[in-house]
Amino acid sequence: LTKGCTVFIPICPFSSLAQTQAGAQWKRADAEEEKGPMTPEEFRKSVAFLLGVWRREFGIADFAEPLSERNRRTFEAKAVTLRKGLEACLARGWRPILVMPPVSRYYDEVFSDKVWRQYVDDFVAAAHVEGVPYWDYGRDERFRDDANFLNSLMLNRRGRVLFTKELVRRAADESSSAAFRRELRAFYPDEC
Fold first, then answer.
1. Which residues of 56-84 are buried (b: 16+ CB within 10 A; e: fewer)?
2. pLDDT tens for each residue of 130-156
């Protein structure tokens, strides 16, 4: 990467804790894309599946309860790791941007604002580095159409294209580098 480049660093609802075991669900992404959008019931099943994975992996009975001591230590360690990564980006002259990609509206049925704050917003605040923006699209209505999602957590091809266009447009708008804006506009003339 070259000096002045923009580095998008995605986070997810449980970036503050350990890696999830849900990876097998994502490996089928290409095959699932061809099926088309899930039904509301399938989305709810996807949410239930991931909630079960996260409950088992992190030992969480109730997401609204305060973090256990073990999860608190992990949360703090992950925040330090993220902060060091952000500082390393800045030291290299890169422009890191923390990004929460959109998640389906079905999480709103199970995650209150308190849960969202505890697992996402508090983590971002704990890892905060001056000058590093946080772009929260987690609940952005522009992307919450079911037709944009592969499953309850991941955007499908259509959703990824829409979301990427938004990131490019915003990065160009917020960049202080005229050269960067010109370069983005050359690659994405309709979005910038």
1. eebebeebeeebeeebeebbeebbeebee
2. 999 999 999 999 999 999 999 999 999
